[in-house]
Amino acid sequence: MDRLIKHHILTQFGSIKSSKGVEVPLSSLDDAAVVDDIVFSTDSHTVKPLEFPGGDIGSLAVAGTVNDVAVLGAEPRALSAGFLIEEGLPFDLFDRIISSMTATAQFAGVPIVTGDTKVVEHGALQQFMINTSGIGRRNAILDNNFKQVTRYRKHHYRWLLDRNVRDGDVLILSGSIGEHGIALLSYREGYGFETKISSDIAPINRLLKQALSKAGGIVAAKDPTRGGLANTVNEFCEKSGIGIILDEEKIPILHGVQAACDLLGYDPLEIGNEGKVVLAVIPEKADDVLQVLRKHPQGKKASIIGHATSQVRGVVLKTEVGGQRIVHKPLGDPIPRIC
Question: Which residues have C-beta within 8 Å of that of residue 309, sequence separation ≥ 6?
Fold first, then answer.
């Protein structure tokens, strides 16, 4: 996927002459673009099965796009929804998914304002696919956040981008990882693990807003979706040109998720999530951000999991037994069709 985007798509689309208002272009490969201080993102969702413990394709589509807009530091304002429906999809299933989208959008406080619907012949796709796009606006909260940053360093930022991470920045994870991918896999394959695992699908825009407004000092944010935490921190490294050291003991993982990964041979760091955020924070504000997150219902298990450093290359994990290992960007998606 990485090669497909960089060598076949970006080489073409990236050559299109852009207007002066494009501040964060396609070539940045962040979760969204910025045009005239408007953040714009789009995502297509194909999930098997359509419903699973903790969510469905509808809640996933809304939360995923809201989160992609929010992690740049914008306030999500509106969504679009495009439906590709296979002939024969039961109306009761369709209605449940639409109801789920409505509830998730209401939770995020972001309305669905436009869309499109297409029905294709039976067998053309697997039941139902959804594309959601979202827009967001810059607000004073982001400016105040960066005022906190410039009190301690000379770097000037306008958005929360992957390339902003600097030597000494602290990495904070908002909660436990791996639930979304393991919940889908368990339900899909019928493994029936002893501990029932539910997806963590949730919009994180209000959680992030709290951290930005009540603490500040955040320089980068990313939701660890496809490729999990491993992919997220590697993108920070690649785009910022900095190394990262993670502390395995500090990374929150539910016992059921860890047990499932051990049984199936998966690395929980590579499992996708849909309701978490990884923040890079200047060291002077890390404790403040952590306390704000822990006071929010979605951040009760927030933890400082590592820091950026020029002393290493790539991502190094300090293991619980005292060793070290390199955390590579995942070569493939260990659990396909989860987002």
Answer: 167, 168, 242, 243, 244, 245
Which residues, other chains included, contact 222 with Cβ-Cβ below 8 Å and sequence gap of 6+?
31, 71, 162, 232, 235, 236, 277, 278
Mean pLDDT of the chain: 94
304 three-class SS: strand
Q: What is the pLDDT of residues 80-117, one digit of tens each?
A: 999 999 999 999 999 999 999 999 999 999 999 999 99
Domains of the chain (ranges, CATH numbers): 9-137 (3.30.1330.10), 140-326 (3.90.650.10)
Instruction: Report the predicted TM-score, pTM, of the whole model to 2 decimal places.
Output: 0.95
DSSP letter assigned to residue 5: I
Indicate the helix (H) or strand (E) that contains 263. Answer: helix 255-264
145-199 tens-digit pLDDT: 999 999 999 888 999 999 999 999 999 999 999 999 999 998 888 776 656 899 9
Query: Which phi-psi region, left, alpha or beta, contains residue 120 (left: φ > 0; alpha: ψ -120 to 50)?
Result: beta
3-state secondary structure of 140: helix
Spatial distance between the Cα atoms of 106 and 199, rounded to a whole number of angstroms: 19
| CA nearest to 42, candidates 64, 72, 18 | 64
